[in-house]
Write the structure tokens for this entry.
Amino acid sequence: MKQNDGRRWHDMGGQAAGPVPKDDHDFALWEKRIDALMVLCSAKGHFTVDGLRRALEDMGEDAFETMSYYERWVASLNQNLVEAGVYTPTELGERMEEIATRGETYGEAAHG
Amino acid sequence: MAERVRVKHMMPPGHVRAPAYLRGKTGFVERKLGAFGNPEQLAYGLPAEKIPLLRVRFSMAEVWGSDTEYPNDTLDAEIFAHWLEYPETHDAP
């Protein structure tokens, strides 16, 4: 249930909710890599878990419905890395294009 | 006697760690945990001031109301000192 007292969308504690899903999660390689990237960025001092959370919260409720957990994480990581000056959006775009030419799958990319 | 504290009842936009369901609720200091960087500054990549973090114990009745299933059960939450205020022990006459 929505509460109209000014609390932000992510701050859901105490609101009505259904049962907790108990099925196991199976993570894809890219998801594990996103998790590792957070550890790496934190260790290198680019940003902290607080920055990760802040960008996740600022994405708003729509992102929570339309993106998966690690899709939201990678978007937040990118936001924080750009803010920390690690790369610019243009540098990211060029690198993404370069990597896309290697192929669609990890196997193709490894031999490309 | 344990120190009574109340979580500030404000709802600012931006990244904060005090959960909304505890704002305005009164508990007591279970223990002091030491000082940690202010997440409200860390979240924006700013140099962070070290602020005392306290473990505060609330009764379920205080958090959810007296009709809660186990009103005397307790809930502990770690709240930064700048989110706590110290209510008067006795109400003014």
